[in-house]
Amino acid sequence: MENTNKTILITSASAYLPSHILRIFLEAGYNVRVAVKTDLEARTVRDAHPGYDDSRVSFVHILDIIKEGAFDVAVKNVHGVIHTAFPAFPFNTVEFEKRIVIPAIDSIYHLLQSVHRHGPTVTRVIIMSSFAAMINVEKGLWPEHMYNESDWNPDTYQVATGTRIMAQAQFASRKLSEKTAWNYMRKEKPMFDLVSLCVPVAWGPLTIPTPSLSCNSDLGSGVRIIHNLMHGSFGQTSGPDNFYPFVDVRDVAIAALKAYQVAHAADERFFLASGRATVQMLCDILHVQFPELRHRLPMRQPEMGGLETVYDVDGSKAERILGFRYRGLLEAVADTAICLLEMERKEAAEKAEGLAKLAAAF
């Protein structure tokens, strides 16, 4: 697929992972239309990607991605859609069906419906799914298993809406959302095709300004892990369940671009996994690469079972079909930490400047 004069809709670009996807599509020469809720969100996205004028980056306001018809205007005259938006999980609710499951299903269904009805120029939709849509939590560490694209979270709609565990409902909603997309394609047979990218924990540099590191909910979930380790607030670092399948966020962006460009990626599901990492492995990298952090980091603890005691992951299909190579753990973790340290220095300087001005006023 040539990128000349082509416009891509990205349904959210103000968060950690989508901001990298926006960057790589711009660098590849595409024009990008970004869905935002507010003018402030649009300014945040614009400021994070300077050097591109309105002909390259435009915005469309969508207040509620769950509503039918929400994307009707957004999908007109675009050639591809990267669906990065997902309904925000509520912090505290017991209404799992109403607040978690139904929004996850409706948002993807209504997006595809809008593309089908109002986006005749769209040739491909790429949806950002999650490892949560794949994992079988009941199997636990499952050391004899290797996850790949054939795996699906076994929790049903009934389980998701009947459980008392919010995390279970959240994980199941990711599976139900992706299944909704594939079922739509099978039943409606639209002219565009579909690709899904299942993403585990992502590490790598940040491209979107974060309001405050002290409120680390603004960070991506993977970045929060590194941030917490750097501040000694993670807790126990060893143990058989303290590990993560991971990918570098920049590789997710590359995969999204390739998923749009590579013709034979049509109607494929990809698990984007570079490998696995224990928390102790993360600490070891930070100890070696950032000696100034050693006083903050948790003390090294003996491993209570290594990676041989937990499930493995296979992300090779994406490398083979999409034609890229994953970055390794060292690069992903080190570049995350570099960004966090730079943000810390900036915050400290701004705080010192503010205190100096305050003192000068008295």
What keyword list fits this structure?
single chain; 362 residues; alpha/beta; seven-stranded parallel beta sheet; three-stranded mixed beta sheet; 12 strands; 41% helix; 15% strand; NAD(P)-bd_dom_sf; NAD-dependent epimerase/dehydratase domain-containing protein
What does this structure look like?
The protein is an alpha/beta fold. It has one domain: NAD(P)-binding Rossmann-like Domain (Rossmann fold, 3-Layer(aba) Sandwich). Helices cover 41% and strands 15% of the residues. The protein is built from 10 helices and 12 strands. The chain has helices at 16-27, 39-48, 96-118, 157-162, 166-188, 221-230, 249-261, 279-289, 316-322, 329-360; strands spanning 7-10, 31-36, 57-61, 80-83, 124-130, 146-147, 193-199, 201-203, 243-248, 269-271, 275-278, 312-313. The strands form 3 sheets. A 7-stranded parallel sheet has the order 3-2-1-4-5-7-10, with helices on both faces. A 3-stranded mixed sheet has the order 8-9-11. Strand 4, helix 3 and strand 5 (124-130) form a beta-alpha-beta unit. The mean pLDDT is 92. Belongs to the NAD(P)-dependent epimerase/dehydratase family. Dihydroflavonol-4-reductase subfamily.
